[in-house]
Amino acid sequence: MKLCMIGTGYVGLVSGVCFSDLGNDVICVDKDEYKIEKLKKGIIPIYEPGLSELVKKNYNSKRLSFSTNLSESVKKSQVIFICVGTPPKKNSNAADLSQIYNVAKEISNNIKSPKIIVNKSTVPVTTGDKVEKIISRKVKKKLFNVVSNPEFLREGEALRDFIYPDRIVIGTSDKRSNKIMRNLYLPLMSKGAKYINTSRRAAELIKYASNAFLATKISYINELSNLCEKIGVNVEDISIGMGLDKRIGGRFLRAGPAYGGSCFPKDTRAIIDTAKNFKTNLSIIKSVILSNQNRTSLLISKIINLLNNKVSKKKIAFLGVTFKANTDDMRESSSLKLIPNLAKKGAKIKYFDPTGNKKEFDKIKNVRNSSSIEEACYDADLIVIHTEWNDFKSLNFKKIAKKKNFIVYDMRRLFNKNKMNKSKIKYFTIGN
Ligand code: UGA
């Protein structure tokens, strides 16, 4: 099929490249000329394992192309995916949909033959209705159909998640569009993905409901981990014991720091905004947001406790600062609150992240980037493992930390507490 992805951010680029790898002709469009020029040279704007190789492979085989010309790209394509950002509006829970509506207007100027317009961006319920309204101002209804096809990719695992999705959700009541979308996804269904066809509004809501539920699961286990610490129980036993019940499921039950990223914090707020517009109170999700906000303060108190209430001049090494491993993304990472807060209290902080220096910390007094784990840790009083990169999973702390009585605080539970204690390392971890 001939496809066009509008927006070369996470969703657009990953889906575009993967669709081309499945044998489709894909044009990835972006108005950012600099970005498009770089992509043509195989330079990828985001950090995602395996993506660069796949871009080069499909670009060289000419199934994948990049363009800044939206009108030409739309004219050439049968299915047009809208993959632009929907960040939160300033001082509001609501999603800013201006990019979606601008793209809809531009598309409407270029429809001369039948097209399917697919919304892949995360958009509040009724956005599809509005996109349809905008396009129908210029285009006869029989020439186009607006479909919702939410994306469930995780950063750092995006290629795998695209190729082996648990489900593909297509929101449309138009039979012809459903058939075309089903054909497009057929190669993934043969690998086990379930395909469901729902109403457009249901598909839009499935995305938010899923993200909010995952955020709830994480907050639930995070709160339980606080209880486990008090009663001397390992939270991992609880996660395993609960997760083996198929009604609960073991994934997303790993206790850790406050969840972050570009999706959960934004989407939990946006679904509350949608519910408010429909006069519904989603009190559980409101509690989840609050619980996640409180988590960072709680972890700061724990660190202060570990340092015997003497934070000033203490040397703290942070290992990993991104919101999770295998990404360079800092958005809503809990480190953005933990590090400045401790630095303000006088701690001297060095951080090491496998994806390098972070501009977010450049101007913060008492905080500096280290080029290696060793450099960050050798004189540390406290080592905080903040992100679960493989690089940190088999560290020999006795070799890298030279200070007497250094402490390790593991927010990702990467090590066995008993083994660490046996080797006389002052090791503390969340939920144990
Ligand atoms: C999330 C969803 O998992 C994807 O399905 C969705 O497509 C995506 O948002 C999106 O809406 O675009 P992502 O934000 O990339 O994906 O990252 P996750 O792997 O979900 O992690 C989010 C946060 O939860 C991270 O801070 C992570 O450390 C934390 N987390 C995750 C835990 O603390 N415990 C867990 O068990 C799992």
Rg, rounded, reads 24 Å
Fraction of residues in helices?
40-55%
Q: What structural class results from the helix and strand content?
A: alpha/beta
Which geometry do the CA atoms define? elongated
Number of strands: 14
Q: Characterize the quaternary organization of these chains.
A: single chain
Strand content: 5-15%
Number of helices: 16
In spatial order, strands of the major sheet run 3-2-1-4-5-6
Cα distance spanning the termini: 52 Å
The biggest beta sheet reads: 6 strands, parallel
Element pattern in H and E: EHEHHEHEHEHEHEHEHHHHEHEEHEHEHE
Mean pLDDT: 97
Flag low-confidence runs. Answer: none
Hetero groups in this structure are: uridine-5'-diphosphate-glucuronic acid
Structure in words:
The protein is an alpha/beta fold and 432 residues long. It is built from 16 helices and 14 strands. It has helices spanning 10-21, 33-40, 51-60, 70-76, 98-108, 127-136, 158-163, 175-189, 200-231, 235-243, 264-277, 283-306, 335-344, 373-377, 397-400, 417-422; strands spanning 2-6, 25-29, 64-67, 79-82, 115-119, 144-148, 167-171, 194-198, 315-319, 348-352, 367-369, 382-385, 407-410, 426-429. The strands form three sheets. A six-stranded parallel beta sheet has the order 3-2-1-4-5-6, with helices on both faces. Strand 5 (115-119), helix 6 (127-136) and strand 6 (144-148) form a beta-alpha-beta unit. The longest helix has 32 residues, at 200-231. The chain is elongated and about 75 Å long. The mean pLDDT is 97. The chain binds uridine-5'-diphosphate-glucuronic acid. Residues 122, 151-155, 211, 214, 218, 252-254, 256, 259-261, 263-264, 323-324 line the site of uridine-5'-diphosphate-glucuronic acid. Uridine-5'-diphosphate-glucuronic acid binds next to helix 9.
